[in-house]
Amino acid sequence: MLQRGILSGLRRGLSSSQAAAFSTSGVSQSLFSDVQVAPKDPILGITEAFLADQNSEKMNLGVGAYRDDDCKPVVLNVVREAESRIAGSNFMEYLPIGGMKAFSDLSVKLAFGEDALPIQEGRVAAVQSLSGTGSCRLMAEFMHRYLPQAKIWIPKPTWSNHHNIWKDAQVQQELYRYYKPESRGLDQEGLLEDLSKGSPGDVVLLHACAHNPTGVDPTPQQWKEISKLMKEKQLFPFFDMAYQGFASGDCTRDAQAIRVFLEDGHLMGCSQSYAKNMGLYGQRIGCFSIITDSADEAKAVESQMKAIARPMYSNPPLHGALLVKEILGNEALKQQWYEEVRGMAERIISMRALLRQHLEDLKNPLPWKHVTEQIGMFCFSGISPEQVDRLAQDYSIYMTRNGRISMAGVTTKNVSRLAEALHKVTTD
């Protein structure tokens, strides 16, 4: 206690002798007395409230994890098959700092295309990462070190953790308009106007598909307009691709934005995650890549990616990389995965159609076509925070206060109850 009191005194600018006196004066404080309780994560808070609810018909529409029609977690059959194939076949040694190269090579082909020119020319720097969050964090730190004048342009709204990631890396953030509440769709005019204010070398965060939280994606033509403007303004695209294949059921379609930018000759960065599309949430498996100007540049950039990763976590985990490598590296398993990820996407698409149908059958006065026009795991419902609160209090239906519904939590058994509750809170 005396030592902590002295440290507390020294923190207050006292001399050693004054600090010692301070420590015995009866006002000594703990070393951690100034540490405040951090605010709860909004999504984890929803889960806590859900778990405490005793209603047998309660619904958790906040968590961003896939559920089957019985609202149960799913392990893909292809993942179980891959597990059986790799079982007992590998040691448990550390991976290199950059992770498993065979995994990264397959991963960038999935993102950019098997025959992508930057891959053929060796211009892609890539490392295995700790899922999508880890990829974004590596990019943020890379910006802090090697693009110190660059700002990160983040869509409004976006996944809330994006702001934390770039804030922790001390990168200046700017927002660009993305969602238009009046139409429940894309604010393309506002987006282009805001990005036109960017400076050469600034980085623009783009959701490759299934925008979180809105479920609103640009059309192919709108992506071409965005790419053209960014090329003219010399802005660097960084794609966060957490849902490839999971959005539409087609991996190629879900990567169309990236392919548009490749056709326009952009250098770019990409964050990939296999949490959603392979159900490998807890394996924390992802890939961080940057397309550079030359093979020599790619080697230098990749070496610095590894230098950033080394003090953060030393090296990434082994098991998830083995699973993804086994699936993407075997044609039969890859085709099986395509079928299973399509099945997950189609279940969510069908729940969108059912929810809209039920709301329209109830003669709800609000427009609900956006439910089926949006894509991916999340539906940006358009209801108010107060209406979200009523859903929780009166109906035991939990979601984030911005009205984001995780469609993975909607099933054939609960969709009518959800529609009725939405109808009540939007008409009473």
TrEMBL record:
Single GO cellular component term: mitochondrion
Additional notes on this entry: In eukaryotes there are cytoplasmic, mitochondrial and chloroplastic isozymes.
Domain Aminotransferase class I/classII large: 57-422
EC numbers: 2.6.1.1
UniProtKB keywords: Aminotransferase, Pyridoxal phosphate, Transferase
Entry keyword annotation includes Hydrolase: no
GO biological process, one term: amino acid metabolic process
Catalyzed reactions: L-aspartate + 2-oxoglutarate = oxaloacetate + L-glutamate
A GO molecular function held by the record: pyridoxal phosphate binding
Quaternary structure, from the entry: Homodimer.
UniProt KW Transferase keyword: yes
Gene3D superfamilies in the record: Aspartate Aminotransferase, domain 1, Type I PLP-dependent aspartate aminotransferase-like (Major domain)
PANTHER family: ASPARTATE AMINOTRANSFERASE, ASPARTATE AMINOTRANSFERASE, MITOCHONDRIAL
Superkingdom of this protein's organism: Eukaryota
Cofactor(s) annotated in UniProt: pyridoxal 5'-phosphate
Name listed for the protein in its UniProt record: Aspartate aminotransferase
Annotated family: Belongs to the class-I pyridoxal-phosphate-dependent aminotransferase family.
Pfam family, one: Aminotran_1_2
